[in-house]
């Protein structure tokens, strides 16, 4: 399983480098994007998992989320 994770990280890093070079117009932007793309992906993943776990929590499932008619 360690080899699969290593291959995935290697592929992600390679694609991160390619897309950072394609999207950035200057060397400074490219270097910045190399670090920002993984930060965005990890943050989005943690937020998604947090939302899933929060929606499964008992106190949120018991509430009635119907909107009142005006």
**What's the overall geometry?**
elongated
Strand percentage lies at under 5%
Number of strands: 0
Give, in order, the helices and strands: HHH
Count, helices: 3
pLDDT < 50 stretches: none
Give the termini separation.
Answer: 56 Å
Relative helix content: over 70%
* Sheet/helix structural class: mainly alpha
Radius of gyration: 20 Å
Arithmetic mean of pLDDT:
87
Sheet having the most strands: none
What would the keywords be for this entry?
single chain; about 70 residues; mainly alpha; 3 helices; about 80% helix; elongated
Record the SSE blueprint.
Elements: H1 2-23, H2 27-56, H3 58-61
Helix pairs in contact: 1-2
What features would you describe in this structure?
- The chain has 70 residues and is mainly alpha-helical.
- The chain is 80% helix and 0% strand.
- The protein contains 3 helices and no strands.
- The relative contact order is 0.07.
- The model has no long low-confidence stretch (mean pLDDT 87).
Summarize the structure.
This protein has 70 residues and is mostly helical.
């Amino acid at each position: 399983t360690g080899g699969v994770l290593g291959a995935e990280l290697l592929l992600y890093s390679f694609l991160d480098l390619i897309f950072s070079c394609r999207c950035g117009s200057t060397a400074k932007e490219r270097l910045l994007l190399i670090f920002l793309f993984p930060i965005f992906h990890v943050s989005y993943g943690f937020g998604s998992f947090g939302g899933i776990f929060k929606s499964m929590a008992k106190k949120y499932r018991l509430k009635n989320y119907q909107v009142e008619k005006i």
